[in-house]
Amino acid sequence: MFNKINTYYHQIPWKSLRDPKNIGLLVFLVIVLLISWSGVKALQTNYNLQKQISVLSQQNNVQQLQNINQQLQNQYYGTNQYLDVTARQEFGLGQLGETELIVPKNVALAHLSLIVSPATDASTVSNNQPSYEKNLQAWMDFILHKQNSN
Fold first, then answer.
1. If DSSP states are collapsed to H, E and C, what string results for 32-57?
2. Domains of the chain: which residue ranges?
3. Are 38 and 44 in contact (CB under 8 A)?
4. Mean predicted confidence (pLDDT) in 103-115
5. Is the separation of the CB atoms in 76 and 82 below 8 Å?
6. For labelling alongside 44, which of 63, 81, 119, 146 has CA 20 to 30 A away?
7. Hey, what long-range contacts does 119-124 have (CB within 8 A, 24 or more apart)?
8. What is the DSSP string of the chain?
C-alpha cells in the first residue's frame, strides 16, 4: 500500500508546480475566482433589493388609491344625497309631501309568493325531458342567443 502511494507521489511533477510562472498563474486564478464570486453576490443583492423596491412601490400605489377612495367617500358623506338616504334608512324620514305606508308583515309575506324566487326560475323547472335533451336545448339557446326556451 505504501509503495502505491509513494509511486503516485513521485509521478506528480512537483517541480512544475514550484515554477514561479505556475504559482503566479495559480494566484491569478484564485483572485479571478474571488472577484467573480464577489460580483455574483453583488448582483444577487441588487436583484433582491430591486424586488423589495418593486413590492414597496406597489404597496405605495395601492395605499394611494385607498387614500383617494377614502377622500371620495368622505366627500360623499358631506352631500345632501347621503344625508337624505341616511335619514330614510335610519330614521324612516321622508321628504315634504311624501307619505309613508306601513305594510303589516303578514300582508307583505302573503304577496311574496307572487314574486318568482331565484330557485324557481325557468332553468330549474323540470319537465319530462331527459337530461341530455335539456343540455342540448340549453346549448342551442345559447348559440342562437335565445333568452327563454321553456
1. HHHHHHHHHHHHHHHHHHHHHHHHHH
2. 2-100
3. no
4. 76
5. yes
6. 63
7. 122/148, 122/149, 122/150
8. -HHHHHHHHHHS-HHHHTSHHHHHHHHHHHHHHHHHHHHHHHHHHHHHHHHHHHHHHHHHHHHHHHHHHHHHHHHHHTSHHHHHHHHHHHH----TT-------HHHHHHTGGGSPPGGGSTTT---S--HHHHHHHHHHHHHTT-S---
Q: Cell 433589493, residue?
A: 49
Q: Please tell me the total number of residues recorded for the chain in this structure.
A: 150
pTM above 0.70, yes or no: no
Residue 3 clears pLDDT 60, i.e. is over it? yes
Query: Tell me: the pLDDT tens digits for 10-54?
Result: 666 656 667 788 888 889 999 999 999 999 999 999 999 999 999
Q: And the C-alpha cell for 31? A: 483572485
Contacts of 140 (CB under 8 A, 6+ apart): 146, 149
